[in-house]
Each structure stands twice: as structure tokens, then as C-alpha cells.
Design a protein that fits this description.
The structure holds 2 protein chains of 2 kinds. In chain A, 81% of the residues lie in helices and 2% in strands. By secondary structure, chain A is mostly helical. Chain B starts with a helix and ends in a 15-residue tail after the last helix. In chain B, 73% of the residues lie in helices and 0% in strands. By secondary structure, chain B is mostly helical. In chain B, helix 1 (2-36) runs antiparallel to helix 2 (41-59). Chain B is elongated, with a radius of gyration of 17 Å. Chain B contains 2 helices and no strands. Classes of the chains: A mainly alpha, B mainly alpha.
């Protein structure tokens, strides 16, 4: 009986249940993003907002690169490489911030329409705004993980927080994988 | 033992790099499809699905969810 209780309170067991919980959260969040994607095609059909396709490619590349470094950071801590983990996390935070600047600081400012002007404008600001909020929360999460990592709280055996932050970050990237072509590449410019 | 762990780490680093290279090529490909062929919606969906599948499998480690060993590093 004691062994049974110990097995269920062990770190490995907790990690397994935490992982399941995180994936359930991601699945539910994916439905919200899916709804936004469907709304885009319902409202705009075979047209798209008038946006800079080059800027879209640049911010997409920045986000993909951030995912690469996040993967490196997580792999590093799995093998006890704390320096590699900290460097990878810091680069991810920097690239995530650059992505936010690119979308909210640049794209939102140069877009030739305001939020309530037409359907294309509304769906563009809703989709990018909702996604940017997730990027912002991901960056905040990564800053927390980085600060804890600097204090030496993670090891090869215990680093669930790092894995969770990484999964969340990659999920934000997956969402953009669909939003980018839907907003910047598919269809003719809406008049 | 430590040497083996190091080799495994380098192997996973390489896998991450290969996945990133594929994602980069696909992203550039979809950019040119979007710029040149306006009505090619289905190829763009195909590329997006492929990119998402790669990220979910290799970066988000979906197979770990089904793993028997919770801390399986394979």
C-alpha cells in the first residue's frame, strides 16, 4: 500500500499527469484559434487584408528561429547543460520580443486600415492581437523560467517547468504556422 | 556513461537543426507560392499542416505523452 502511494506522489508520476493537463489546455486553446481561423474565411473568403508579405515572412522566420532555440534550451537542460539552457532561453525571449515588435509595433502601425474599418481589418487585429497576447504570456513565462534557471532550480532530473514553457512556446508557433498563410498569403487583397 | 549522454544530446541538437532547416525551406516555399500564385490555397494548407506536424512531433514531443516511462529521453 505504501509503495502504491509513493509511486503516485513521485516526480515522474506528477510529470506525466502535468503533461496530460497541459496538452488538454492546449487542445482547448486550439479550438479558440481554430474559431478565429474559420471566422477569417467566413468573413473574407478568397480575399486577404492588404499587408506587407515581406514583413510577414520576417516575423514568421523570427518565430521559427525562436522555436529552434527553445528546443535547444530544453534539450540542454535534459542533459544537465545549464549554460546551454540559459543561453537558449535568453535567445528565445529576445526573438519572441522581436516578433511582438514586428507585429504590434510595426505591422499594426503601417497597416493601411484601422481596427473597425471593415471585416478584413477587424479579423486581422483580432487574430494577430489574440496571438500576440499568447506570445507575450509565453515571453513572461520564459522570463520566470530563466530567472529560476539562473538560481539553479532545474536539473537533468527535474525540469518540468522548462518542458511546459517550451511546449507552450511551440504551440504559439504552431498557431502562427496557420495564421501566417491565412492572413498574408491566401487570396487577393480585399478592396 | 557521460560520453554516451553527450552523444545523445548532440544527436538531439542535430535533429532540432534538421527540423528547423525543413521548416525554413517550407516557409520560403510558401512565401513564393503566396506571392506568385494567388489562388493556390490548397498547397499552402498542405505546407502549413506539414510544418505543424513537424513542430508537434519533434519540438513539442507529442510521443512523450504516450510514453510508458515518463522521463523517457529516447
Amino acid at each position: 500500500m505504501t509503495t502504491h502511494v509513493d509511486a503516485r506522489s513521485g516526480y515522474q508520476y506528477k510529470t506525466g499527469t502535468n503533461r496530460l493537463g497541459l496538452w488538454l489546455f492546449i487542445l482547448s486553446d486550439a479550438f479558440v484559434f481554430g474559431g478565429l481561423l474559420v471566422s477569417r474565411f467566413y468573413l473574407l473568403g478568397r480575399t486577404r487584408p492588404d499587408l506587407s508579405q515581406l514583413l510577414g515572412l520576417i516575423v514568421t522566420s523570427i518565430l521559427l528561429l525562436s522555436s529552434f532555440f527553445m528546443n535547444r534550451a530544453e534539450t540542454a537542460i535534459r542533459f544537465g547543460d545549464k549554460k546551454g539552457f540559459l543561453n537558449g532561453t535568453l535567445l528565445t525571449i529576445t526573438l519572441g520580443t522581436l516578433f511582438l515588435i514586428g507585429v504590434v509595433g510595426v505591422e499594426w502601425q503601417i497597416a493601411p486600415f484601422s481596427a473597425g474599418e471593415n471585416a478584413a481589418a477587424s479579423i486581422f487585429y483580432t487574430m494577430t492581437g489574440f496571438h500576440a497576447f499568447h506570445v507575450l504570456t509565453g515571453v513572461i513565462l520564459l522570463v520566470i523560467v530563466y530567472r529560476k534557471g539562473r538560481k539553479g532550480l532545474y536539473s537533468a532530473e527535474r525540469h518540468w517547468a522548462v518542458e511546459a514553457a517550451a511546449i507552450y512556446w511551440h504551440f504559439v508557433d504552431v498557431v502562427w504556422v496557420f495564421f501566417y498563410p491565412a492572413l498574408y498569403l491566401m487570396g487577393r487583397i480585399a478592396s | 556513461m557521460e560520453e554516451r549522454a553527450n552523444e545523445k544530446k548532440l544527436e538531439l541538437f542535430r535533429l532540432g537543426l534538421v527540423v528547423f532547416a525543413i521548416l525554413a525551406v517550407l516557409t520560403i516555399g510558401e512565401y513564393f507560392i503566396g506571392v506568385i500564385a494567388i489562388d493556390w490555397t490548397w498547397p499552402l494548407w498542405g505546407i502549413a499542416l506539414l510544418k505543424a506536424a513537424l513542430i508537434v512531433r519533434d519540438y513539442m514531443h507529442l510521443p512523450r505523452l504516450l510514453s510508458q516511462d515518463e522521463e523517457d529521453h529516447s
